[in-house]
Amino acid sequence: MAVRVRNPRGEGLRLREELVLAAGRLLESDDPTAVTLRGVAREAGVAAPSVYGHFADLDALLLAVVEHHLARLRREVEAVTGADPEARLRAASLAYCRWGVEHAGAYEVVFGGRALRLLSEQESAAFADGEAMLTHLGDLLAALPGVTAPQVPDLVLAGWTGLHGCVSLRTGKPGYPWPPLPAHVDLVVDGLLGVRG
Fold this sequence. Notes:
This protein is mainly alpha-helical. It is built from ten helices and no strands. It folds into two domains: 1-55, Orthogonal Bundle (Arc Repressor Mutant, subunit A), CATH 1.10.10; 69-193, Tetracycline Repressor, domain 2.
């Protein structure tokens, strides 16, 4: 635990962010089940009662961690620009996988159940940015020549499944002779594009 310098008065949002980041670090550790409000406070360098000023309970804090990571992933995917629909789809897919591989612990927290498995009714709220990201993927797919509107939901599901598999396999089996990440992502996208028409 680092010694924390107290935030100036009126900067409570910074403490909230520090608590979210601290909880994220603990969730990414070897023993994520040891995550408690007291443990998060200790990791952030604050007194345990400080947590309750920002989060009603552990579920609310875990929800904020998931939202934080998904917002970061969504920004990476949606930052891709360009006029060519296929190039944008490939670049957005690569952005998704690159973020997942480079932030494997955060990716595992969100999609591996380390946080959401502890939640229940709040799961849909936690995935608001995730749903928006999937809608964006659907928009990219819908812009491709030969893709019809009825195909889009299935293509989004197949695409997300493929991209998730790419990230999960590469991080879970790093010793396997994977192709370079762009080539791996292209294999997933090529499979999607083969469904058109």
